[in-house]
Amino acid sequence: MPELPEVETTRRGIAPHLEGQRVSRVILRDRRLRWPIPEDLDVRLSGQRIVLVERRAKYLLINAEVGTLISHLGMSGNLRLVEIGMPAAKHEHVDIELESGLALRYTDPRRFGAMLWSADPHNHELLLRLGPEPLTDLFDGDRLFQQSRGRSMAVKPFIMDNAIVVGVGNIYATEALFAAGIDPRREAGGISRARYLKLAIEIKRILAAAIERGGTTLRDFIGGDGQPGYFQQELFVYGRGGKPCKVCATELREVKLGQRASVFCPRCQR
């Protein structure tokens, strides 16, 4: 599933080609996503100039002069730029054609993504209760420490809770906990302020590094320019259960936490 770095990579790839451009038409080939695409999307968006492309958590906000298209890539979706008229393959559900001659094409084999229209996106029910962005000053170790008090849940699902902080998905939670030396099974409420300060620093560092390297391509993800991400080459623990730790050579263990696979080093993490 595309996580925050992959979505931000997509935003950076498509924004220069969308911002300031006018939409000539929208082609809907299949409306059946996680929620149906509005059948009048062509009427709402065609003729409008795209003002700004933003990201909030894992949602892309394509702001037009009147209204905003909220897009989520789901488990296997991607947005990329193609020439208008390029034949559409299977699972290429939407084309947003621009006067520049390019089209923003949405592909989603599993159809778990979304394309919704909103007049007030930041107050949309999907975005309204989200926590702070991890790469801003609103997120730090003090917030993690305060929010964790009295919480008996494991620390890994705690930092993956979008009400605590957005966009820390399975890959980057696993990597940040390893970098901070914290066992993902530890109770969130039993971790000290000092260790949360370290964890927040590592979350920021790892997410920023992943964005600069174009995200992580494990299977489906490609950026807005059609290129894969390269951060997978720097993964220390994610997806490496049973292999030796890159730091101490201890065999990495894999457990289930919050119904997600979690890999950790029993020696480096405590």
UniProtKB/TrEMBL annotation:
Alphabetically, the GO molecular function entries are: 8-oxo-7,8-dihydroguanine DNA N-glycosylase activity; class I DNA-(apurinic or apyrimidinic site) endonuclease activity; damaged DNA binding; zinc ion binding
Q: How is the cofactor bound?
A: Binds 1 zinc ion per subunit.
For activity, the cofactor(s) needed are: Zn(2+)
Q: Where is the FPG-type domain?
A: 236-270
* Binding-site residues, DNA: 91, 110, 151
Tell me what reaction this enzyme catalyses: Hydrolysis of DNA containing ring-opened 7-methylguanine residues, releasing 2,6-diamino-4-hydroxy-5-(N-methyl)formamidopyrimidine; 2'-deoxyribonucleotide-(2'-deoxyribose 5'-phosphate)-2'-deoxyribonucleotide-DNA = a 3'-end 2'-deoxyribonucleotide-(2,3-dehydro-2,3-deoxyribose 5'-phosphate)-DNA + a 5'-end 5'-phospho-2'-deoxyribonucleoside-DNA + H(+)
Ranges for domain Formamidopyrimidine-DNA glycosylase catalytic: 2-113
GO BP term, pick one:
base-excision repair
Q: Name one Pfam family in it.
A: H2TH
Q: Which SMART domains match?
A: Fapy_DNA_glyco, H2TH
- SUBUNIT field: Monomer.
PANTHER family per the UniProt record, alphabetical: FORMAMIDOPYRIMIDINE-DNA GLYCOSYLASE
**What is stated as this protein's family in its record?**
Belongs to the FPG family.
> What name is this protein filed under?
Formamidopyrimidine-DNA glycosylase
Gene for this protein?
mutM
